[in-house]
Amino acid sequence: MENNFILKPRYVAVASFILMAALMRILPHPWNLSPVDAIALFGGAQFRNKYAAFLFPLGVLLLSDCVLGFDASLFFVYPAYALIVCLGLLVGKNKSIGTIAAGTVSASLSFFLMTNFGVWAQQSMYPKTWAGLNACYVAAIPFFKGTLVGDALFVAALFGAFALVEKGFPQLRESSPATA
Question: Using CB atoms within 10 A of its CB, is residue 128 exposed (0-12), middle (13-18) or buried (19+)?
Protein backbone atom coordinates (compact mmCIF):
# COMPACT_ATOMS: atom_id res chain seq x y z
CA MET A 1 0.00 0.00 0.00
CA GLU A 2 1.33 3.39 -0.94
CA ASN A 3 1.56 5.78 2.03
CA ASN A 4 0.69 8.99 0.20
CA PHE A 5 -2.53 7.78 -1.46
CA ILE A 6 -4.50 10.51 0.33
CA LEU A 7 -2.55 13.26 -1.47
CA LYS A 8 -3.45 11.98 -4.92
CA PRO A 9 -5.89 14.21 -6.84
CA ARG A 10 -8.56 11.51 -7.12
CA TYR A 11 -8.61 10.93 -3.35
CA VAL A 12 -8.81 14.65 -2.66
CA ALA A 13 -11.70 14.97 -5.13
CA VAL A 14 -13.61 11.96 -3.72
CA ALA A 15 -13.04 13.20 -0.16
CA SER A 16 -14.28 16.66 -1.12
CA PHE A 17 -17.49 15.23 -2.56
CA ILE A 18 -18.06 13.22 0.62
CA LEU A 19 -17.46 16.27 2.82
CA MET A 20 -19.94 18.34 0.78
CA ALA A 21 -22.56 15.60 1.08
CA ALA A 22 -21.94 15.30 4.83
CA LEU A 23 -22.57 19.03 5.20
CA MET A 24 -25.98 18.43 3.60
CA ARG A 25 -26.72 15.99 6.43
CA ILE A 26 -26.39 18.76 9.01
CA LEU A 27 -28.91 21.00 7.23
CA PRO A 28 -32.61 20.55 8.07
CA HIS A 29 -34.22 17.87 5.91
CA PRO A 30 -37.29 15.60 5.88
CA TRP A 31 -37.13 12.37 7.90
CA ASN A 32 -34.64 9.88 6.46
CA LEU A 33 -33.99 12.04 3.39
CA SER A 34 -30.26 12.35 3.96
CA PRO A 35 -26.97 11.58 2.20
CA VAL A 36 -25.62 9.01 4.68
CA ASP A 37 -26.19 5.86 2.62
CA ALA A 38 -25.00 7.65 -0.52
CA ILE A 39 -21.80 8.75 1.23
CA ALA A 40 -21.00 5.16 2.23
CA LEU A 41 -21.86 3.74 -1.22
CA PHE A 42 -19.94 6.46 -3.06
CA GLY A 43 -16.89 6.14 -0.81
CA GLY A 44 -16.81 2.38 -1.25
CA ALA A 45 -17.14 2.68 -5.02
CA GLN A 46 -14.70 5.54 -5.60
CA PHE A 47 -11.78 5.02 -3.22
CA ARG A 48 -9.32 2.44 -4.53
CA ASN A 49 -7.76 1.99 -1.14
CA LYS A 50 -10.05 -0.14 1.05
CA TYR A 51 -8.90 1.57 4.24
CA ALA A 52 -9.88 4.95 2.80
CA ALA A 53 -13.14 3.46 1.48
CA PHE A 54 -14.17 2.62 5.05
CA LEU A 55 -12.35 5.16 7.19
CA PHE A 56 -13.13 8.37 5.35
CA PRO A 57 -16.92 7.98 4.82
CA LEU A 58 -17.46 6.44 8.27
CA GLY A 59 -15.19 9.05 9.87
CA VAL A 60 -17.09 11.90 8.21
CA LEU A 61 -20.40 10.41 9.35
CA LEU A 62 -19.01 10.05 12.87
CA LEU A 63 -17.96 13.71 12.86
CA SER A 64 -21.39 14.80 11.66
CA ASP A 65 -22.94 12.71 14.46
CA CYS A 66 -20.77 14.65 16.90
CA VAL A 67 -22.66 17.73 15.74
CA LEU A 68 -26.09 16.08 15.50
CA GLY A 69 -25.83 13.85 18.57
CA PHE A 70 -25.67 10.12 19.23
CA ASP A 71 -28.19 7.60 20.45
CA ALA A 72 -28.19 3.90 21.25
CA SER A 73 -28.97 2.98 17.64
CA LEU A 74 -25.37 3.67 16.61
CA PHE A 75 -24.55 0.00 17.34
CA PHE A 76 -26.82 -0.88 14.42
CA VAL A 77 -26.37 2.23 12.28
CA TYR A 78 -22.59 2.08 11.88
CA PRO A 79 -22.50 -1.62 10.92
CA ALA A 80 -25.20 -0.76 8.36
CA TYR A 81 -22.95 2.00 6.96
CA ALA A 82 -20.02 -0.44 6.86
CA LEU A 83 -22.15 -2.93 4.92
CA ILE A 84 -23.06 -0.17 2.46
CA VAL A 85 -19.36 0.60 1.98
CA CYS A 86 -18.97 -3.11 1.10
CA LEU A 87 -21.77 -2.73 -1.44
CA GLY A 88 -19.90 0.29 -2.79
CA LEU A 89 -16.75 -1.79 -3.18
CA LEU A 90 -18.78 -4.17 -5.35
CA VAL A 91 -20.31 -1.30 -7.34
CA GLY A 92 -16.83 0.14 -7.86
CA LYS A 93 -15.72 -2.98 -9.74
CA ASN A 94 -18.21 -2.24 -12.53
CA LYS A 95 -19.63 1.28 -12.28
CA SER A 96 -22.66 1.39 -14.53
CA ILE A 97 -26.12 2.84 -14.12
CA GLY A 98 -27.43 -0.67 -13.42
CA THR A 99 -24.88 -1.55 -10.73
CA ILE A 100 -25.20 1.86 -9.10
CA ALA A 101 -29.01 1.55 -9.08
CA ALA A 102 -28.80 -1.99 -7.65
CA GLY A 103 -26.31 -0.78 -5.04
CA THR A 104 -28.62 2.09 -4.11
CA VAL A 105 -31.66 -0.13 -3.59
CA SER A 106 -29.55 -2.69 -1.72
CA ALA A 107 -28.14 0.07 0.50
CA SER A 108 -31.61 1.37 1.30
CA LEU A 109 -32.95 -2.10 2.07
CA SER A 110 -30.00 -3.17 4.19
CA PHE A 111 -30.09 0.07 6.19
CA PHE A 112 -33.84 -0.33 6.71
CA LEU A 113 -33.53 -3.95 7.83
CA MET A 114 -30.54 -3.46 10.12
CA THR A 115 -31.59 -0.24 11.82
CA ASN A 116 -35.19 -1.27 12.38
CA PHE A 117 -33.99 -4.57 13.78
CA GLY A 118 -32.04 -2.39 16.20
CA VAL A 119 -35.17 -0.44 17.13
CA TRP A 120 -36.97 -3.71 17.85
CA ALA A 121 -34.03 -5.18 19.80
CA GLN A 122 -33.22 -2.10 21.88
CA GLN A 123 -36.53 -0.46 22.59
CA SER A 124 -39.52 -1.66 24.56
CA MET A 125 -42.27 -0.50 22.20
CA TYR A 126 -42.43 -3.88 20.41
CA PRO A 127 -42.63 -7.34 22.00
CA LYS A 128 -39.54 -9.49 21.49
CA THR A 129 -41.39 -11.92 19.22
CA TRP A 130 -41.59 -12.49 15.46
CA ALA A 131 -44.89 -10.61 15.51
CA GLY A 132 -43.20 -7.72 17.33
CA LEU A 133 -40.36 -7.63 14.81
CA ASN A 134 -42.85 -7.70 11.95
CA ALA A 135 -44.85 -4.88 13.57
CA CYS A 136 -41.65 -2.84 13.90
CA TYR A 137 -40.82 -3.27 10.21
CA VAL A 138 -44.38 -2.46 9.14
CA ALA A 139 -44.41 0.69 11.29
CA ALA A 140 -41.13 1.79 9.67
CA ILE A 141 -42.34 1.47 6.07
CA PRO A 142 -43.45 5.13 5.83
CA PHE A 143 -39.89 6.20 6.76
CA PHE A 144 -38.44 3.88 4.12
CA LYS A 145 -39.83 6.12 1.38
CA GLY A 146 -37.61 8.97 2.58
CA THR A 147 -34.61 6.66 2.76
CA LEU A 148 -35.14 5.35 -0.76
CA VAL A 149 -35.81 8.80 -2.25
CA GLY A 150 -32.88 10.36 -0.39
CA ASP A 151 -30.54 7.57 -1.39
CA ALA A 152 -31.59 7.80 -5.03
CA LEU A 153 -31.19 11.59 -5.12
CA PHE A 154 -27.87 11.74 -3.29
CA VAL A 155 -26.38 8.74 -5.11
CA ALA A 156 -27.37 10.27 -8.46
CA ALA A 157 -25.90 13.62 -7.41
CA LEU A 158 -22.63 12.18 -6.09
CA PHE A 159 -21.98 9.66 -8.85
CA GLY A 160 -23.32 11.92 -11.61
CA ALA A 161 -21.42 15.03 -10.55
CA PHE A 162 -18.23 13.05 -10.03
CA ALA A 163 -18.54 11.49 -13.50
CA LEU A 164 -18.83 15.01 -14.95
CA VAL A 165 -15.78 16.16 -13.00
CA GLU A 166 -13.82 13.11 -14.22
CA LYS A 167 -14.81 13.97 -17.77
CA GLY A 168 -13.47 17.50 -17.39
CA PHE A 169 -10.35 16.43 -15.47
CA PRO A 170 -9.06 13.16 -16.95
CA GLN A 171 -6.31 12.94 -14.31
CA LEU A 172 -9.04 12.05 -11.79
CA ARG A 173 -10.11 8.94 -13.68
CA GLU A 174 -9.19 5.59 -12.18
CA SER A 175 -7.50 4.48 -15.37
CA SER A 176 -5.25 7.54 -15.39
CA PRO A 177 -1.60 6.79 -14.49
CA ALA A 178 -1.67 9.81 -12.13
CA THR A 179 -4.30 8.10 -9.94
CA ALA A 180 -2.70 4.67 -9.72
Answer: exposed
